[in-house]
Amino acid sequence: MKAPAVVLATGKRKTAIARATFRKGQGLFRYNGLPLDFVEPDLLRRKIQEPLLMIGDRASSVDITVRTSGGGVVGQASAARTAVARGLIAYLKDDRLRETFKHYDRTLLVSDPRRKLPKRPGGRGARSRRQKSYR
Questions:
Q1: How many other C-beta atoms can be found within 10 angstroms of the C-beta atom of residue 130?
Q2: What is the pTM of this model?
Q3: Quick count: other Cβ atoms within 10 Å of Cβ 61?
Q4: Pair 66, 92: CB distance under 8 Å
Q5: What are the sequence ranges of the domains in the chain?
Q6: CB 115 within 8 A of CB 71
Q7: Of all helices (H) and strands (E), which one includes residue 117?
């Protein structure tokens, strides 16, 4: 099947949101305006790269641009990872790839629904409480 001209995909993790754009090209990957090689720390770069490494040479014909906002650096990297995996499936139109991603790690395709608990009265956070003394 013929690949579409442009594919847009999103990913979320906590309060971080990633938007990925896929176009036909030479395999360039830009993350927040930087080439992927300049993303630090190395652990986050590898996390973002996981879906690309799983598809192999097919990534060399796609230009990917990822923009993230909100949250922290780890949440943004996880959101970008989800957006890249979803976008690759949509761009390449490959159902076997979906099964491969799902078998490897379900969070590649499904955004993590966990959120922070709200602060409640009687303490400094969601779970902590002020100590009581009966003396």
A1: 7
A2: 0.84
A3: 13
A4: no
A5: 6-104
A6: no
A7: none
Is 72 within 8 Å of 98 (Cβ atoms)? no
Please report, for residues 9, 27, 29, 64, 87, the alpha-carbon distance to residue 61 in angstroms, rounded to integers and kept in the order given: 17, 5, 11, 10, 14
Side-chain-side CA neighbours of residue 31 (13 Å):
22
Residue 92 burial class via C-beta count within 10 angstroms: exposed 0-12, middle 13-18, buried 19 and up: buried
CATH top-level class of 6-104? alpha beta
**3-state DSSP call for residue 19?**
strand
Residues 27, 70 contacting (CB under 8 angstroms): no
**pLDDT tens across the length of the chain (135 residues):** 566 789 999 999 989 999 999 999 998 999 999 999 999 899 999 999 999 999 888 888 899 999 999 999 999 999 999 999 999 999 988 889 999 999 998 888 998 888 889 999 988 999 998 888 886
56: its two tokens: 């192999």
